[in-house]
Automatic annotation (TrEMBL):
Keyword Repeat: yes
Enzyme nomenclature, EC number: 2.5.1.9
Gene Ontology molecular functions: riboflavin synthase activity
Protein's name in the database: Riboflavin synthase
Limits of the Lumazine-binding domain: 1-97, 98-194
Any GO BP: riboflavin biosynthetic process
Role summary: Catalyzes the dismutation of two molecules of 6,7-dimethyl-8-ribityllumazine, resulting in the formation of riboflavin and 5-amino-6-(D-ribitylamino)uracil.
Lumazine-binding repeat copies, ranges: 1-97, 98-194
Highest taxon of source: Bacteria
Record lineage: Bacteria, Pseudomonadati, Pseudomonadota, Gammaproteobacteria, Pseudomonadales
Pathway stated in the Swiss-Prot or TrEMBL entry: Cofactor biosynthesis; riboflavin biosynthesis; riboflavin from 2-hydroxy-3-oxobutyl phosphate and 5-amino-6-(D-ribitylamino)uracil: step 2/2
Length: 206
C-alpha cells in the first residue's frame, strides 16, 4: 500500500524494451534508496512496481505489456523525471489517502492556469470514469494524493500549492501530457454498490 505522499522526484536512466516487457532503470535521489531490497514495492508515477535489481541509487523494474498499455510508463524515456513513493510500513503516518498502486486509467492535462501563489491543473478523463470523480473527493494523479476541485463533464481540476509543485513533477507539467489516475477505492465501492442496487437509474414516471 501507498499513502499518496510523493517522497521525491527520480530520473529515468534507461529503458530497455524486450518482448512483452520493458526494464526501467530509475535513479533515486541520494539517500532515498537506503534499505530497499530486491522484491520491494515502489510506486513509479503511481504505478506499483517491484525492484528486480539495485545498483547504489539505481533501481531496476520490469513493467509487463499490460502495465505499459494501461499506464503512462510506456511513454517514459531516458531523462524523464517521475514521482516515486516507497511502500508504506505499519505505523507510517497516512498524510494522503490509501492507494494500491494499481492504475485505473489515464488522463490528459487539458489546461494549466497559473496565478500568483498556486497553479490549477485541468484534466480530461475517459467518460466511463467520471462517475467516480466528485468535487472535494480524493484522487491520485501520478501517485500524488490530491483533492478534486471543480468537475465539469469529463473534466476536473486540482489546485496545487508551491510545495506540491516543488516536491513533484507537476511543477514542470505541460498541456497535453498524459498522467496516471487511481480512483479512490472507497468512492468506487460506494458508487458501484449504489449502482448494483439500482440507485444510479433515473426515477420512473408514475
Amino acid at each position: 500500500m501507498f499513502t499518496g505522499i510523493v517522497q521525491g522526484i527520480a530520473t529515468v536512466e534507461k529503458v530497455t524494451a524486450a518482448p512483452g516487457l520493458s526494464t526501467l532503470v530509475i535513479r533515486l535521489p541520494d539517500n532515498k534508496a537506503a534499505g530497499i531490497t530486491i522484491g520491494a514495492s515502489v510506486a513509479i508515477n503511481g504505478t506499483c512496481l517491484t525492484v528486480t535489481r539495485q545498483d547504489n541509487n539505481d533501481l531496476y523494474f520490469d513493467a509487463m505489456q499490460e502495465t505499459l498499455q494501461c499506464t503512462t510508463l510506456g511513454d517514459l524515456q531516458a531523462g524523464h523525471e517521475i514521482n516515486f513513493e516507497r511502500a508504506a510500513r505499519i505505523g507510517d503516518e497516512i498524510g494522503g489517502h490509501l492507494l494500491s498502486g494499481h492504475i485505473h486509467t489515464t488522463a490528459t492535462i487539458a489546461e494549466i492556469v497559473k496565478t500568483e501563489n498556486n497553479v490549477t491543473l485541468w484534466f480530461e478523463v475517459p467518460a466511463a470514469w467520471t462517475k467516480y470523480i466528485f468535487t472535494k473527493g480524493y484522487i491520485a494523479i501520478n501517485g500524488a494524493s490530491l483533492t478534486i476541485g471543480e468537475v465539469e463533464g469529463n473534466r476536473f481540476n486540482v489546485h496545487l500549492i508551491p510545495e506540491t509543485l516543488r516536491a513533484t513533477t507537476f511543477g514542470t507539467a505541460s498541456e497535453g501530457q498524459r498522467v496516471n489516475i487511481e480512483i479512490d477505492s472507497q468512492t468506487q465501492t460506494i458508487v458501484d454498490t449504489l449502482a448494483r442496487l439500482g440507485y444510479d437509474q433515473p426515477p420512473t414516471a408514475r
